[in-house]
Structure prediction request, 910 residues.
Amino acid sequence: MTRLTEWFSAGRSSGKHTLPFVVILLTMTLLASAANLFLPADSALYVSTYTITLLGKYLCYAMLALAVDIIWGYCGILSLGHGAFFALGGYAMGMYLMRQIGDRGVYGNPLLPDFMVFLDWKELPWFWLGMDHFWFAMLMAVVVPGILAFVFGWLAFRSRVTGVYLSIMTQALTYALLLAFFRNEMGFGGNNGLTDFKEILGFDLQADSTRVSLFMITALLLAVLFVVSQRILSSRFGKVVLAIRDAESRSRFIGYRTDRYKVWLFVYSAVIAGIAGALYVPQVGIINPGEFSPINSIEMVIWVAVGGRGTLIGAIIGAILVNYAKTRFTAIMPDAWLFALGAMFVLVTLYLPKGLMGLYAQMMAKRRPAKTQESEA
Amino acid sequence: MRHLIALCCCLFGLLSFSVYAAESSPQDSLLTELVGAKLKNMTPILEKLANTQGEAILPLFRILLGGDLYYIKADKSLVGQFDEQGNTVYKDVFSQVVVPNLSKKDVKKIRVNNTLRGYLRNAIAQIQLTAKSPELRQSAVRELLSKLDKDTINLIEALYPNEANKKVKEAMGLALSMYAATSIDLVPSNRLVAIERLSTSLEGDVRNTLTKLMKDENPAIVKAASEALENIAQRANRFAFIDQLFFGLSLGSVLLLASIGLAITFGVMGVINMAHGEMIMLGAYTTYVVQLIMPNYIDYSIWVAIPAAFLVSGLMGVLIERLVIRHLHGRPLETLLATFGISLILQQLVRTIFSPLNRQVSTPSWMSGSWEINPVLSLTLNRLYILAFALLVFIALVIILKKTSLGLNVRAVSQNRSMAKAMGVKTNWVDAMTFGLGSGIAGIAGVALSQLTNVGPNLGQAYIIDSFMVVVFGGVGNLLGTLVAAFSLGIATKFLEPTTGAVLAAIIVLVFIILFIQKRPKGLFPQKGRAAE
Prediction:
């Protein structure tokens, strides 16, 4: 058992929460799923399918927050464009699901999705080819964000665009993509995006079992990515990344090719965002250009900031908490949500620079000296 | 121009109506005669009307020409039939007031035949061409250009030598040349001269005529026409280019106004203010509120709105600086997040106070309308004023930064904060003032933008990314760079738009800047020396 804990924590003290966290995450997932599938609907402990979908959505956001934290918390790169990678992953999944509709669309065209028939297109654009194969679409969900991140990162980091400049560039990137995807001529459904999905790999998307499976897969992948990221960031590679965050010029002078480290970390982060997007779309049932909007990308950053950056666990917890608050707020007082969100931005940066995890660590630090004193006495 | 004519017609109609109502003039009896007259007897009555009434009779003639003249069976008074949103309504011919409760059964049509129509057309042309105001005469000639026939040409020919107004005379000459160029029975050399004259005009009708002449039997005429057309096309292209350039400059001036405040807060202070767009929005809403307070003085409201917007946005800026940004000094990424939060709060605040819908800000009369230079080129006045205004603001800002003690302090703090502090500069105060200045200028930008776009809670968001692009492209901390960047981006966007469409043009410009920053991370005009790092 201790060896297992050690493997998970990768020998770092900060990683000692990793195993318990994964265990808690997966147990909760299993319990919620079981409560949905095996309990009768009138039971007090029954979890509705709506809640399952909501939880699945939160976990996708958590995965996205993980991606943001990896580059912001560990490498100091504040990306205001991670929504772009998320949305691209989502579009790849959306295209697959769109092809799965087949001739059950409103126009009943076996080859073309409804919006193309509506636009009077005669054949499938080249970038839609192959999207009817699940494996290919999933490959694209990972590869396309990865390539975009690589090209952008390679250009930006090589010419040493850093700090605020880089943030604004990433924001411009997602803004440009937002404008582009709004165009009907792009072939991604324009304003309406892709929706009306029927089934995934032959399973009905509306069925409880499919919803629960998607939720469980999301949780499992989140756990895997979390552990893998933890391992990567505690490896030698991760240590260099930390060094770059704290003193980039110094690391460069020592002889590390800092730009390469940054590019690969950026690509890794984008891939995670792409996976999150691909898992998100079948659960919410729609993907549209709104996902590219700069405000979405900036919201992700606040999830991480609330949870505490540079902790991974903090990012996950922050994403779940903030989104839960959003769900509750928009249901009770829709107008107040933006006030609350704005206040959160200001207060967290002013008074909680290390987020909730920092607060937790502070409290632990206060208790520990008291304990040691006791034992001495 | 057409509106002007319509307006004049209305006015004259009103005038004549009052005359018509006050005294039972000979016109009254003539009009009654018209109701009962047979078709062949109508011409003399109409002639009398034209001679006695002049311009006042135009509405009646127009309605009659369109075959829409009716009379009410009960009292034999004349009404015109109009179609308003699919409903048939009857209006008094002269006053244009709707006569209520009339159905098709209550009225009878006054019939016209081709002879009458020909007479009416001529009479209308004659009345217009002899109108008192030169503008009316000129527009009458321009209107006639598309439907020249023997009679109108005779009329114009008769009037031409006595015409005093230069512009009207020119237009009449054009009409004569157009007719001469197309008359086959004329000597070819005369026609060639006429075509030569036509090649200096930019009127659309002239181009149509010349295009028709391309099918002429005489090869010399065809050649001359094609040369003239090419000539015209070249000139028109030149003016189209100027037009595009003007729109580019206009967009540039908007970008300049939006980004110049940012150039101060971001460029000089190094503080990234994501709420900058909301400062613009506050300025626009201030304009709206000022107009609400003084609804009877819209023409002067701008002069109140500019200082008011500067104060509102400037004070908000000082408040933000004192409460938030001061505590985040040296942490640019956190500043970015905190100010973004502020922008969300401000947006929601405006939404709660003013509703999420767009508000209407009216344009002062002296700013509306356009400056017509020739038939293909007219510049809208509000864009012209905003262009001048943007340059004025820019110059004022440069003077403040270069010539005043505040400017000196601002520059000192931006170059070396601790040294400035050591020399006794109150850096805290300078920070607050700089931020207030930048925000205040954003507010002024909002006043200008309220004249061009809708005023809504999202007004600022639309400009924030563009503004950052301009500042980064021009080189941070360099006001002149901001100027150059704003205008070059504006012009580039407007020249791309015709070929690519507005959205793609915006994308291309964005991608270009992203690539440009990779190549030259410090912008067009990088700061030199130690202050740069």
User: Anything to note?
Assistant: The longest strand of chain B covers residues 78-84. Chain B has three domains: 2-123, 130-217, 238-366+376-527.
